[in-house]
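Proteins fold reproducibly. Consider a sample protein:
=====
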Amino acid sequence: MADEVLVAVDAGIATVTMNRPDQRNAMNTALLRALSSSFDELDGRRDVRVVVVKGAGPAFCAGMDLKEMQQRRGEADPEGNVVDVLRRVERSKHPTIAALHGDAIAGGCELALHCDLRVAAEPARLGMPLARIGLVIPFPLGQKLVEIIRRELDVTMALAGIRNFKQIDRQVLAD
């Protein structure tokens, strides 16, 4: 079996690649553990200045591995500590960038939101289609969405000198 997560460092840029392209980088227990361990390792490195998170193959991340979640049904944490891993990414000592391509769905969208910045290539799709499979958006994700949108508005206002919300609507929300 291939490594679930690949890590490379070049010129201060660490690239963390989720490596389950045949499963559209769906997060299983092994990938989540490897992702957390990778961030632990990178935090201890002085030669790293920024961390880029990406997915191998055609998608950034299709969310949780639903087959594994089904097998873990009834366990205390069928999602395999994904919330802890997302918090680990968010607490990185280095700035984090989600390099989005293809789909970033459900847990993949959450992972992108827990990075400091998100850069999307054409075509990239972000989404939370949880209702389609009978789930609701977790409360921490709802909080994260509000936090990210608010921060984007604040940064745009500060950097672009925008002083009224009509300009923000045109400048930010149209992007």
User: Anything to note?
Assistant: The chain has two domains: 5-134, 138-175. The two ends are 40 Å apart (CA to CA). The longest strand covers residues 117-127. Confidence is low (pLDDT under 50) at residues 171-175.
